């Protein structure tokens, strides 16, 4: 397919890479502008969990469709992307949380995703390292994990995009101005720079969210699924206060990647040790063997969130040729491919069932609807 369209993608992370790939597959000549490492930033700081979430119908549709696209992409990814269909185990600590399993399974079924309700004995048999006394859970076998920096680099290379190692300092009519003073002509500009998108479009309803991750030494604890507590929403999303939740991912190296924490409006990168202790206490409450492991590394990352926890995807609404793909909070890796499909549908008029949902900037006050 050929096109005379000139597109500039601002941001070389997972979302920017997916958008560049989608635009190029429709024939556009794509440039990606990224001043830092490709696949760095939030892409490198995440767990790489590919997970269907059902907080809202729009989120369920976007994550489910994105998992379909990841399934299709997986056979082409390089081995270093470490794509593994380990599945997710949603763990219920009590009967109240277990009661949430049935509606969650029904939502997944409606989205075409398979899941399996587990009683306490079945949960223990699948993951013997979990503590005794848990109520049960939900196994979602189609969920997966991926090493996102490699996946992003693969998509950028496949797109054939020209990578410009610079920053975009201003969006102008028909072009972008770089930090070096150079200008790049563009019929379409896609702002996919995470929280950095605010430097170009300060009117966007985005908020910075800091998270911590810790990786352990090799060996010592056998875990085969991505483990997440079913109380994740009430633990990690109930308010704007600092919060933690149980979330553990087995790595092929025999290490465990442990999350998660959530803090708003903390732009510094330094670990917050009090919150890290809370996060590890939470992990130990579900997985007691964590207490015997040594940590090899701790790091933080910055994501960006919208008021309704859905990303901003589509035309800016007021600026000709300017599109956005940002605000994915903790689901940027999962939903990058679905995001790119929505973007392509708007730019090229291609079909996508996701266009039935409103991911536009205009759903918030103050900016015209796309």
UniProtKB/TrEMBL annotation:
FAD dependent oxidoreductase domain location: 7-345
GO molecular function annotations of the record: oxidoreductase activity
Keywords assigned by UniProt, alphabetized: Oxidoreductase
Organism this protein belongs to: Deinococcus metalli
InterPro entries: FAD-dep_OxRdtase (IPR006076), FAD/NAD-bd_sf (IPR036188)
Signal peptide: none
Protein name per Swiss-Prot or TrEMBL: Glycine/D-amino acid oxidase-like deaminating enzyme
Keyword Oxidoreductase in annotation: yes
Pfam families for the chain: DAO
Gene Ontology cellular component annotations, sorted alphabetically: cytoplasm
């Amino acid at each position: 397919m050929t096109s005379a369209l000139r597109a500039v993608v601002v941001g070389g992370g997972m979302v920017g890479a997916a958008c560049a790939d989608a635009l190029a597959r429709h024939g556009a000549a794509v440039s990606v502008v990224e001043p830092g490492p490709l696949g760095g930033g939030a892409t490198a700081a995440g767990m790489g969990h590919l997970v269907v979430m059902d907080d809202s119908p729009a989120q369920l549709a976007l994550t489910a469709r994105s998992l379909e696209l990841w399934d299709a992409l997986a056979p082409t990814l390089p081995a270093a992307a470490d794509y593994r269909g380990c599945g997710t185990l949603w763990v219920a600590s009590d009967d109240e949380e277990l009661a949430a399993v049935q509606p969650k399974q029904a939502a997944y079924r409606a989205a075409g995703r398979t899941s399996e309700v587990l009683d306490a004995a079945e949960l223990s048999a699948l993951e013997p390292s979990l503590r005794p006394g848990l109520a049960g859970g939900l196994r979602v076998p189609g969920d997966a994990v991926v090493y996102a920096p490699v996946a992003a680099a693969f998509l950028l290379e496949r797109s054939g995009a020209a990578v410009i190692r610079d920053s975009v300092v201003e969006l102008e009519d028909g072009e972008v101005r770089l930090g070096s003073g150079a200008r790049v002509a563009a019929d379409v500009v896609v702002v996919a720079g995470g929280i950095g998108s605010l430097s170009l479009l300060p009117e966007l309803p985005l908020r910075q969210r800091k998270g911590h991750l810790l990786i352990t030494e090799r060996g010592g604890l056998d875990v085969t699924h991505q483990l997440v507590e079913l109380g994740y929403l009430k633990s990690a999303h109930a308010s704007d206060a600092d919060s933690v939740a149980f979330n553990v991912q087995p790595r092929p190296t025999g290490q465990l990647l442990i999350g998660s924490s959530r803090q708003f409006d903390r732009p510094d990168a330094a670990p917050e040790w009090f919150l890290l202790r809370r996060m590890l206490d939470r992990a130990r409450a579900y997985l007691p063997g964590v207490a015997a492991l040594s940590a090899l590394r701790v790091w933080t990352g910055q994501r960006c969130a919208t008021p309704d926890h859905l990303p901003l995807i589509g035309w800016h609404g007021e600026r000709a040729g300017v599109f956005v793909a940002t605000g994915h909070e903790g689901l940027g890796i999962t939903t990058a491919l679905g995001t790119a499909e929505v973007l392509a549908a708007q730019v090229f008029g291609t079909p996508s069932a996701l266009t039935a949902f409103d991911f536009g900037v205009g759903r918030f006050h103050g900016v015209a609807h796309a």
